[in-house]
Design a protein that fits this description.
The complex is a heterotrimer. Chain B is of the alpha+beta class. Chain B has 5 helices and 4 strands; from the N terminus they run αααββααββ. Chain B starts with 28 loop residues before the first helix and ends in a 20-residue tail after the last strand. Classes of the chains: A mainly alpha, B alpha+beta, C alpha+beta.
Chain lengths: 188, 170, 329
């Protein structure tokens, strides 16, 4: 099971130069994109194409991670999808060890800002996780000093303190109830 | 096709009950004498061609192309964008769902220099069989098992050496 | 003597110490007092500007995104807000408070020397200063709400408000509302909140003005003023803030403008007893900024916590405390 949300229905992508039209043309284009992703580990392109390729790339890496390179059907799949054969070695020798114990998806996708004026294309960035290039978003900002977070944390601590107090009071009360034979009762 | 008689005159012979409607003019010989103009089925249709909807004017290429492609242009270029947000790191503007273009330019430039340092042969034809590690100026390679690429410039401040640290130190 | 008579006498004695405009008039009203304070403020501000005989220039260096630059501004007239106008609109709309040489500075307070300038907003990684400034502004606005809510039916005498503590969950204003037995209903609290909430529709600046203690005493007759003035740099000045027509004294910086507010509520009114001022009402509230849109559920959850009595210290005169300590009583 792939660890990200992919579209259930395939996009019927239009014919591109050098890849042909129809379902065959679409697969041809997907192969090129998957090959490029495995090679360069970070590619830019039109959002619909990269989103489609993402599913195929994830599935390919998933098969390789599960079955390893001695499994013949997986080898055939990799041989079909990776058009340049030095990438076969990369997939099984580099990417499989990298993602062996991964609990997340193997790829990440970002939306790039639209260029104005232009063709109005929605551009995106697709990359493999833990690649050697610098992070697209360099540092995650700290939000713990955000006003809302400060208030909520204080409210939570307050609530927990009150809970402890009520528990303590309740336990005191129960202790007293088991106490028998005493005439003087201490008020809690 | 039901064609009602235009006028029921008293001079006409009374209709046979089975032939109350003049369905096929040819089948009822009695009516042949009355109707002067023999109308075939096609003629009856063609004579009422006023019913059909038909374009009055030629569609110019402008109108045609706008209809086919214009909706995208109106949506993307003519409607005001209310989702523009300032990047908290650099202050440049971008749409809310995209990454900051200005911040990404820096990353892209650095990636390019790293790729060139790798060399065309390694990059395009012979990808290494182990993880690639980039070593900048005045840095020592930590793991000898990995494929080392030397970059002849100092490491940028924002590109941290240890990429897998979760704890933020600021 | 019956108990209630003693109580009333004590209250009358105490109210002399509470800040109020001392006149010969038989009946005071908040609107009259506000108008007089406003006139004094405008006069004093005009006098201070007229005192600037020659325009001197200062170099202000802006640090931080979006652009690091050096500006040439007017000494004693240009504010950080003016600097932001020269740099980018983003800084004008989102800036809450400025840092001048590392110290918090009001956006509308004139700059006096060459300095380094930084702008702070609520989405900063270290938003401690903007949060405190917002909380202080919440208290200030509570004063405005209380002075204007009852129109001229009650003469509300504001006392003071303590240092802002965001973690307590609410900000506070202690005042003498002249209504001893009043438990506000939720509708009444909503009405009070609405007065504060409506401010966000207007772009009302919070104008600071540094005045001499004597001028401040003509505006507010309060025993606290000499104490506050003594802690200032010169030893005799007090910062007075004006928001539209409302004028009040507070130490630290306030936010730039009322259009930064997103939500404002008055959450509770508690009875407190001050040793120097007698029985007072502790009015509590909660405020949220535009830059941090909050879900209504979260806001109501936080408002509920804000109904609990705020543990901030009760207002008292420090000089009296000192005397008491000296006398050993």
């Amino acid at each position: 099971m792939l660890r990200f949300r992919y579209r259930f229905r395939q996009r019927n992508l239009p014919s591109a130069e050098g890849t042909g039209s129809g379902p065959a043309g679409r697969i041809s284009k997907m192969r090129k994109l998957v090959t490029a992703l495995i090679r360069h580990e970070r590619i830019e392109g039109k959002h619909p194409y990269l989103d489609e390729a993402r599913g195929y790339a994830e599935r390919l890496i998933d098969e390789a991670v599960r079955n390893g390179d001695q499994h013949k059907p997986t080898m055939e799949i990799a041989n079909y999808w990776l058009l340049e054969k030095d990438l076969l070695h990369k997939l099984f020798k580099v990417l499989v060890p990298r993602y062996e114990n991964a609990s997340t998806s193997y790829t990440k996708m970002w939306n790039l800002p639209t260029v104005y004026p232009g063709g109005g294309y929605h551009m995106a960035l697709l990359e493999l996780r833990n690649n050697p290039w610098p992070d697209v978003i360099p540092q995650q900002r700290e939000v713990k000093n955000n006003l809302i977070n400060v208030l909520i944390k204080a409210a939570k601590e307050d609530h927990e303190k009150n809970q402890q107090l009520t528990e303590h009071k309740q336990s005191e009360f129960t202790d007293q109830s088991t106490d028998t034979g005493t005439t003087t009762s201490q008020s809690p | 096709m039901i064609v009602l008689p235009l006028a029921a005159t008293k001079e006409r012979e009374p209709y046979h009950p089975a032939l109350a409607y003049n369905v096929i003019p040819v089948a009822t010989p009695t009516h042949d004498q009355d109707c002067d103009d023999k109308q075939s089925l096609l003629d009856t249709i063609m004579s009422n061609i006023l019913w059909a909807a038909v374009p009055k004017h030629r569609r110019s290429p402008t109108k045609r192309l706008i209809r086919r492609n214009g909706y995208t242009y109106v949506r993307d270029f003519m409607t005001p964008k209310k989702n523009i947000v300032a990047c908290l790191e650099c202050g440049h503007y971008h749409e809310r769902h995209t990454i900051c273009g200005n911040c990404y330019e820096k990353v892209k430039e650095e990636t390019e220099t790293m790729r060139e340092a790798m060399g065309e042969d390694t990059r395009l034809y012979n990808q290494p069989k182990s993880e690639v590690v980039f070593v900048y100026e005045n840095e020592k390679p930590e793991d000898e098992n990995k494929f080392i690429v030397e970059v002849d410039k100092p490491r940028p401040e924002w590109f941290s050496h240890s990429l897998l640290t979760k704890a933020k130190t600021r | 003597m019956p108990h209630n008579v003693i109580h009333m006498n004590a209250g009358r004695l105490a109210s002399r110490l509470v800040r109020r405009f001392c006149t010969q008039a038989k009946s005071l009203s908040n609107s009259e007092v506000t108008k007089k304070r406003n006139d004094l403020f405008t006069k004093e501000k005009a006098r201070q500007i007229a005192n600037i005989s020659r325009l001197e220039k200062i170099q202000v260096q802006h640090i931080g995104p979006p652009e690091e630059c050096t500006l040439l501004m007017n000494k004693g007239l240009s504010t950080p807000f003016n600097c932001a106008m020269h740099i980018q609109e983003l800084l004008v709309t989102r800036s809450v408070v400025a840092l001048v040489n590392g110290q918090p500075w009001d956006m509308h307070k004139p700059l006096v020397e060459d300095c380094e300038l930084q702008f702070l907003h609520f989405k900063d990684e270290d938003a401690k200063i903007p949060n405190e400034v917002l909380w202080r502004t919440g208290s200030y606005i509570l004063g405005y709400v209380l002075e204007n809510a009852f129109k001229d039916n009650f003469y509300v005498e504001l006392c003071s408000f303590p240092k802002p503590d965001v973690r307590s969950g609410s900000f506070v204003y202690d005042a003498d509302l002249k209504t001893q037995h009043w438990q506000p209903s939720p509708t009444e609290l909503n009405c009070l909140s609405a007065i504060g909430f409506k401010l966000q529709c207007y772009d009302i600046k919070f104008e600071p003005l540094e005045v001499d203690a004597s001028v401040a005493l003509t505006m507010f007759k309060s025993a606290q003023i000499p104490e506050i003035a003594a802690t200032s740099a010169t030893g005799n000045t007090i910062t007075v803030y004006r928001m539209g027509t409302h004028i009040d004294i507070t130490r630290g910086p306030l936010i730039a403008s009322t259009n930064l507010i997103y939500r404002y509520s008055v959450t509770a009114i508690h009875d407190i007893e001050s040793p120097d001022y007698g029985p007072l009402k502790r009015v509590q509230g909660i405020i949220m900024p535009q830059q941090l849109p909050i879900h209504y559920w979260t806001y109501e959850f936080l408002s509920e916590r804000a109904t609990k009595l705020n543990p901030a210290p009760v207002p008292s005169l420090k000089s009296k405390q000192k005397l008491a300590a000296e006398n050993g009583s």
